[in-house]
Design a protein that fits this description.
The structure holds 2 protein chains of 2 kinds.
Chain A lengths: L1 H35 L2 E3 L5 E3 L3 H7 L2 H32 L6 H12 L3 H11 L6 H8 L12 H29 L3 H10 L3 H29 L3 H6 L11 H11 L3 H29 L2
Antiparallel strand pairs in A: 1-2
Chain B lengths: L1 H15 L21 H26 L3 H6 L14 H9 L1 H35 L7 H10 L5 H14 L6 H26 L2 H9 L4 H12 L1 H17 L2 H6 L7 H5 L3 E2 L2 E2 L1 H21 L1 H8 L7
Antiparallel strand pairs in B: 1-2
Helix pairs in contact in B: 2-14, 5-8, 5-11, 6-8, 8-11, 9-10, 11-14, 11-15
Amino acid sequence: MKAMAHKERIKFFFVIPGILWVLIFTIFPLLYSLRLSFFQARLGQDQTFIGMGNFQGAFSDYRFWNSLSITVFFVVVSVSLTVLLGLGLALLFNRPRRGLRFFRSSFVLPIFTAPIALGYLGLTIFHEDVGAVNVALRMLGVVNPPGWFHQVWAARLAITLVDVWQWTSFCFLVLLAGLQNLPEELYEAAQLDTSSGWGIFRHITLPLLAPVLFTVTILRLVETLKVLDIPFSMTSGGPGAATQTYSFYVYLVGLRNFNAGYASALAYILLLIMLFISSFFFNRLRAIYD
Amino acid sequence: MATKNAISSRERSERVAPNAAAIPPVAERRRKPLKITDGMIWVLIVVATLWVFFPFYWAITTSFKEHLAIVSQPGFIPWLQFRPTLLNWEREFVNRGPEIMSGLTNSGIIAIGAMIIACALGTLAGYGLARFRFHRWQNKDVTLWFLSQRFLPPMVTVIPFFLVMKFLRLLDNPIALIIANATFTMPFAVLIMRDAFKELPIELEESALVDGCSHFSAFWRIALPLAAPAIAAAAIISFAFSWNEFLFALILTYERARPMSVIIAGVEHTQGIQFEFVATRLLVAILPPALLALTVQRWIVRGLTFGAVKG
């Protein structure tokens, strides 16, 4: 009995330090910014309570809607491209093959490249006159390659492509691991019934891989919604505000214009969007960690 | 590798698809009918590898180009299209050496500090979640709560964080960034370690407890050494993410404590961006975490998916 009671107590010794740390360094900032969001507050000046004013202000702020729609474009294109490309590559390389090991190793590199550095590299790769992309396009005979930083959609595409480059390998590695964990016996049985590769993929691989696809999509979704570094370094939000993603706009409001109250309200709107999205997969995520 | 996969897939088959066991063993093992030929696959491997390496290749070749060559002879192949030069690297390390050294030192201090805190607290919490049962809040909820830190947009916390650090007089001090990054990367450490401890056979620790070992020394002497590879993976992942973090670094430092990620952001000049300068600098900045990450590949998938997918 004594041992049991001891066990009851010691278990807290293990988890409490981590919980406390995270509580102190996230809950306090979270509460403080919740408070700020109800105030007209500029950094270094007096604060006045304005209730829901900041939130109402956001809905009539065209830059808010602009950044939100850019982020939605970015998220949809980047997440679907990375997951689809990753899935394609994973299917292609899901077989014992000598080159695979080296290939897998090299695919780890993009994931750990600092996004901020990648943005600057993107700047040199997509440069209109001497960047790699346009030089290559001209070599291929394209007379008028896109002005990546002057055309609205080209710029949006450029930042998205850089993100796609960085995270395709992540999706590839995760989906490949998922494929290699699938039971081999099932495939062997399936091949007796049907010889169609598509049939096997559609009716066996895809359903079995669904949990992994789900995980990878969620993780990508959460990360891309926060995107800041790549547009920050690559386009500075330009041309105009064409690549001003949501986080970038919040950064400009809060940390360039020092409008802390409004920035906090905007950040909370993003948090609410994330909560809304995560509510859809909360139960499945909870089951994973059971 | 192939045998390992075969084993793990056999283990999994019972859990993932209970029906799989019911299917009679296949007498005749046939190769999958391949529609895609081997040659095509090799072409695709090459294309995909080029896709991965091209940006690095571009950065490396650019770093060996003279400014004039970048503007007048844009090309991809050294010696053929441009004459490589060491000038940029010389400038980077000689003229701007002190700045780079201070950036690397700061990044190192920040990343190592954050790594130590995240891994220490994360390992404890991971062990607690793997080995004990919590009642009021279930283990999975605590786990998910740790994970949810990762979902939090940093923009929500950055302003209060700045104000707190200002109040504590920790602006432009690596400690502020160590605290921030330890918080951000702790979910990785907690979830990786929880997963790793769950896989260790509990019997070893139980028999130690029977022998009169305390819970803590069972953890410290038996579980911890066995989980060493996972700790290394958690450490390197939190190191890399802390090294690469930009927003908080930008806000919380302005001079002495600037890490590499912020120093890179200073590459833009008023007369436009200088490619060769960007290239040398970002190669210096991205190499340490990328090279470290190569050493814990086996854990990358599991680590980055928070244990949800086994690599």
